[in-house]
Amino acid sequence: MSEEKKLTLASRKTLGVKTTVETGRVRQSFSHGRSKPVVVEVKRKRVLRKPGEAEAEAEAPATAEPASAPAPAGAPASETLPPPAAHDLDGLTADEITTRQAVAKAAMKQAE
Protein backbone atom coordinates (compact mmCIF):
# COMPACT_ATOMS: atom_id res chain seq x y z
CA MET A 1 0.00 0.00 0.00
CA SER A 2 2.73 2.48 0.87
CA GLU A 3 4.60 1.50 -2.30
CA GLU A 4 1.73 2.86 -4.41
CA LYS A 5 1.65 6.31 -2.79
CA LYS A 6 3.87 8.98 -4.28
CA LEU A 7 5.82 11.21 -1.96
CA THR A 8 5.34 14.87 -2.77
CA LEU A 9 6.33 18.14 -1.16
CA ALA A 10 3.05 19.87 -1.97
CA SER A 11 1.09 20.95 1.07
CA ARG A 12 -2.64 20.49 1.48
CA LYS A 13 -5.05 23.28 0.74
CA THR A 14 -5.89 25.32 3.84
CA LEU A 15 -9.34 24.99 5.33
CA GLY A 16 -11.56 28.01 5.27
CA VAL A 17 -15.07 29.13 5.99
CA LYS A 18 -17.32 30.15 3.13
CA THR A 19 -18.70 33.64 3.43
CA THR A 20 -22.40 33.71 4.25
CA VAL A 21 -22.61 37.48 3.89
CA GLU A 22 -23.71 39.25 0.72
CA THR A 23 -22.64 42.87 0.41
CA GLY A 24 -24.23 45.73 -1.44
CA ARG A 25 -23.91 49.49 -1.58
CA VAL A 26 -26.67 51.99 -0.79
CA ARG A 27 -26.73 55.73 -0.19
CA GLN A 28 -27.49 56.84 3.35
CA SER A 29 -29.12 60.27 3.46
CA PHE A 30 -29.12 62.51 6.52
CA SER A 31 -31.81 65.00 7.52
CA HIS A 32 -29.56 68.02 6.90
CA GLY A 33 -29.05 67.10 3.23
CA ARG A 34 -25.78 65.18 3.34
CA SER A 35 -25.58 61.66 1.91
CA LYS A 36 -22.85 59.08 1.72
CA PRO A 37 -22.43 55.60 0.22
CA VAL A 38 -22.61 52.78 2.78
CA VAL A 39 -21.74 49.08 2.49
CA VAL A 40 -24.65 46.88 3.59
CA GLU A 41 -24.20 43.23 4.55
CA VAL A 42 -27.09 40.79 4.27
CA LYS A 43 -26.44 37.57 6.14
CA ARG A 44 -27.93 34.37 4.73
CA LYS A 45 -29.60 31.95 7.09
CA ARG A 46 -27.71 28.66 7.43
CA VAL A 47 -29.86 25.59 7.26
CA LEU A 48 -28.38 22.65 9.13
CA ARG A 49 -29.71 19.24 8.18
CA LYS A 50 -28.97 15.68 9.13
CA PRO A 51 -27.35 13.64 6.33
CA GLY A 52 -30.53 11.61 5.68
CA GLU A 53 -32.82 14.64 5.58
CA ALA A 54 -30.98 16.39 2.75
CA GLU A 55 -31.82 13.60 0.30
CA ALA A 56 -35.47 13.43 1.37
CA GLU A 57 -36.01 17.19 0.96
CA ALA A 58 -34.34 17.22 -2.45
CA GLU A 59 -36.81 14.63 -3.73
CA ALA A 60 -39.92 16.17 -2.13
CA PRO A 61 -40.04 19.48 -4.11
CA ALA A 62 -39.62 17.65 -7.41
CA THR A 63 -42.69 15.49 -6.76
CA ALA A 64 -44.80 18.28 -5.25
CA GLU A 65 -44.29 20.70 -8.14
CA PRO A 66 -46.36 18.86 -10.80
CA ALA A 67 -49.17 18.17 -8.33
CA SER A 68 -49.87 21.86 -7.70
CA ALA A 69 -52.51 23.30 -10.01
CA PRO A 70 -52.90 27.01 -10.79
CA ALA A 71 -55.67 28.79 -8.90
CA PRO A 72 -58.84 29.45 -10.91
CA ALA A 73 -59.00 32.96 -12.33
CA GLY A 74 -62.53 33.58 -11.02
CA ALA A 75 -61.65 32.90 -7.37
CA PRO A 76 -61.30 36.05 -5.25
CA ALA A 77 -58.12 36.49 -3.24
CA SER A 78 -60.03 36.61 0.07
CA GLU A 79 -60.98 32.93 -0.24
CA THR A 80 -57.36 31.84 -0.59
CA LEU A 81 -56.20 33.73 2.52
CA PRO A 82 -56.85 32.22 5.95
CA PRO A 83 -59.33 34.14 8.11
CA PRO A 84 -57.72 36.47 10.66
CA ALA A 85 -57.59 35.06 14.18
CA ALA A 86 -59.59 36.87 16.87
CA HIS A 87 -56.87 36.24 19.46
CA ASP A 88 -53.35 34.98 19.18
CA LEU A 89 -53.47 31.64 21.02
CA ASP A 90 -50.42 30.06 19.43
CA GLY A 91 -48.12 28.39 21.89
CA LEU A 92 -50.66 28.18 24.73
CA THR A 93 -51.53 24.95 26.46
CA ALA A 94 -55.13 23.77 26.83
CA ASP A 95 -55.01 24.67 30.54
CA GLU A 96 -53.92 28.24 29.78
CA ILE A 97 -56.68 28.64 27.19
CA THR A 98 -59.40 27.47 29.63
CA THR A 99 -58.02 29.79 32.32
CA ARG A 100 -58.17 32.75 29.94
CA GLN A 101 -61.73 31.87 28.93
CA ALA A 102 -62.80 31.68 32.60
CA VAL A 103 -61.24 35.07 33.33
CA ALA A 104 -62.95 36.58 30.28
CA LYS A 105 -66.35 35.21 31.41
CA ALA A 106 -65.82 36.60 34.92
CA ALA A 107 -64.96 40.01 33.48
CA MET A 108 -68.11 39.95 31.31
CA LYS A 109 -70.29 39.16 34.36
CA GLN A 110 -68.63 41.90 36.38
CA ALA A 111 -69.17 44.42 33.57
CA GLU A 112 -72.95 43.71 33.53
Q: Which outline best applies? A: flat
State the low-pLDDT regions, or none: none
How much is the radius of gyration in Å? 29 Å
**Secondary-structure element sequence?**
EEHHH
* Percentage of residues in helical conformation: 25-40%
User: Approximately what portion of the residues adopt beta-strand conformation?
Assistant: 15-25%
Distance between the termini: 91 Å
Annotation, overall tally of beta strands:
2
Largest sheet: 2 strands, antiparallel
What is the strand arrangement across the widest sheet? 1-2
Oligomeric state as shown = single chain
Structural class: alpha+beta
Number of helices: 3
- What is the average of the pLDDT values? 74
Write the layout of secondary structure elements.
Elements lengths: L20 E9 L5 E9 L7 H17 L9 H4 L13 H18 L1
Antiparallel strand pairs: 1-2
Account of the protein in words:
With 112 residues, this protein is of the alpha+beta class. The protein is 35% helix and 16% strand. The protein has 3 helices and 2 strands. It has helices at residues 51-67, 77-80, 94-111, and strands at 21-29, 35-43. It has a two-stranded antiparallel ribbon with strand order 1-2. Strand 1 and strand 2 form a beta hairpin. The longest helix is centred in the last third of the chain and has 18 residues, at 94-111. 0% of the residues are buried. The model has no long low-confidence stretch (mean pLDDT 74).
